[in-house]
């Protein structure tokens, strides 16, 4: 769908990027609700939204589609507040939290089968300060869309919104499968970076400085931890499976090194290099 009026709840880097692209692709009205006031002011100044509201429910009263961009638990809270109006008016809604099965279950419990589908955007979203929304943001991105049980029509509308209103290619995916993908490709890299930082801090040589490679490998540890705590609890089984997989590989390497097995070490390292090289342009 191509909504004449879009509601964006949560004007973080992703919310602003979606709003900004929608206005530049012909959106006549983009109503923003800011979880943090300064984000709202900047969104208006940069033209990402056409207006701000102080009551989140006003987005559902006016829009044909509402996008919620917030951490998982906050997204669920906001969805609960919006649900009566979404159902009453037949307004479509999606979220972009990095946990999907839990969001889908929450939406289903609120009776939103006919209007809600979960989303997760994979692409360039670089929050370089409050004015960090640039034309290239989300260029070439993918929007994974997950349907509620019996909610395929709503999922198709949400997928069409991503393609036509935002210019992002949609991919339909089961919520449980997407949670597994996110556990391995989004949450696990952050956990590995934090594990390395913790090991360096607790067990590394005293008084050391971090070289370029260590700084690069631990950059993800700088991301906020509050949302990650929610993710680890809401997507627990998939995250545990990913952590087990990393542990298995580290143990294989540790065993090869402890045995002085040059061949096994070489195979392990080359396998990693070769697989990663597939993603280098």
Mean pLDDT: 91
Q: Identify the CATH architecture of the largest domain.
A: 3-Layer(aba) Sandwich
Query: What's the CATH class of the largest domain, please?
Result: Alpha Beta
Ends apart, CA distance between termini: 33 Å
What name is given to the CATH topology of the largest domain?
Rossmann fold
- The CATH homologous superfamily of the largest domain is named NAD(P)-binding Rossmann-like Domain
> How would you describe the shape?
elongated
What's the story with the biggest beta sheet? 5 strands, parallel
| Number of helical elements | 11
By secondary-structure content and strand pairing, the structural class works out as alpha/beta
Lateral strand order in the biggest sheet: 3-2-1-4-5
Can you summarize this structure?
This protein is α/β, with parallel strands linked by helices and 281 residues long. The chain has two domains: 5-173, Rossmann fold, CATH 3.40.50.720; 178-277, Orthogonal Bundle (6-phosphogluconate dehydrogenase C-terminal fold).
Pick out its properties.
281 residues, alpha/beta, Rossmann fold, 6-phosphogluconate dehydrogenase C-terminal fold, 2 domains, five-stranded parallel beta sheet, three-stranded mixed beta sheet, 11 helices, 8 strands, elongated
What's the arrangement of secondary structure elements?
Blueprint: E1 5-9, H1 13-24, E2 29-33, H2 37-45, E3 51-52, H3 57-62, E4 65-68, H4 72-89, E5 92-95, H5 101-109, E6 117-122, E7 142-147, H6 152-166, E8 169-172, H7 175-203, H8 212-217, H9 226-234, H10 236-259, H11 262-277
Parallel strand pairs: 1-2, 1-4, 2-3, 4-5, 7-8
Antiparallel strand pairs: 6-7
Helix pairs in contact: 7-10, 10-11
